[in-house]
Amino acid sequence: MKIDRLLSIVILLINRPLIQAKELADMFEVSVRTIYRDIESINGAGIPVVTYQGAGGGIGLMEGYRLDRNLLTEHELADIFTALQSVSSYGGGEHSLLMEKISSVIPPSQSAAFRSKTAQLVVDFSPWGMQKPLEERLALLKEALEESVAVTFEYVAASGAVSRRSVEPYTLVLKGPSWYLYGFCSERGDFRLFKLLRMKSLVKEERRYVRQDIPVKELPWSSGWADPSGTTPVVLHFPAAGRHLAEDYFDYSELHPDGDGGYTVTVYYPEDNWLYGFLLGFGPLAEVLEPEHIRRRLGEIATGIAAVYSSCGDSGKT
């Protein structure tokens, strides 16, 4: 849309001393003639645009022109900029123009201090390594949310069961290291939380839906872990060889030295397949002391794993 292009050009001009008409034309995929017509429209709106001819010339704003920046303080703008940087670390490239807009309202005399503030905290949500399929699912679900259209996908449950789902998407949730979709599932007649990595054959439907107002207190991704009735206390022991793992995963206030260079720690988690996978991930460098039934279950799982790999030599598999 022309109005979007005009606004974007104004933001770029505010944030840069000079920019070439050809660069703007390439950026917005229009002709140079169209860019000059846009400049005339911007001038007509009272924003002073100046064209400088010759080598090193270009298009710029009249010296001293700035956006009104009385609405937010520089500290508040730095906080917003940092948050946008964090979102942009994982499929959020559409925020780059807004970040440039925020930078444009900072006076030149304060720009160095602003850059310093926005570099003090970095929150990078992107995983180690590339996850292109996950990024593609995120992009498709963002489109479905904006367009208020349902999506269809095959969902692989933790049990391994596969089901076909038609879902009205409401919210994308980044919980810990994983992305989830919260939406209304037609097959279940209720709201459900779906892990994106468990989705297969995700497509948008033509069916549109009217979004309902969902009270914040009903959103499910925090309440389960906060409710003590839904968790199990687990006492872990890390020997000296596993000390570094304890310090990586738990706060020092939770760790109790065992006198031999190791730690014991009591944690509270919902008892499910995630918990067993989490505990097994420590390998022999952590031992569950309590409760006894979790010790037994971990032993059974470990025995099953050992049986799988001990048979590799007999079957000739590698």
TrEMBL record:
Residues 2-57 form the HTH deoR-type domain. InterPro entries: CBASS_pafABC_assoc_protein (IPR051534), DeoR_HTH (IPR001034), HTH_11 (IPR013196), PafC-like (IPR028349), WCX_dom (IPR057727), WH-like_DNA-bd_sf (IPR036388), WH_DNA-bd_sf (IPR036390), WYL_dom (IPR026881). Keywords: DNA-binding, Transcription, Transcription regulation. The keyword Transcription applies. The keyword Coiled coil does not apply. GO terms for molecular function: DNA binding; DNA-binding transcription factor activity. Transmembrane segments: none annotated. This is Predicted DNA-binding transcriptional regulator YafY, contains an HTH and WYL domains. It comes from Paenibacillus typhae.
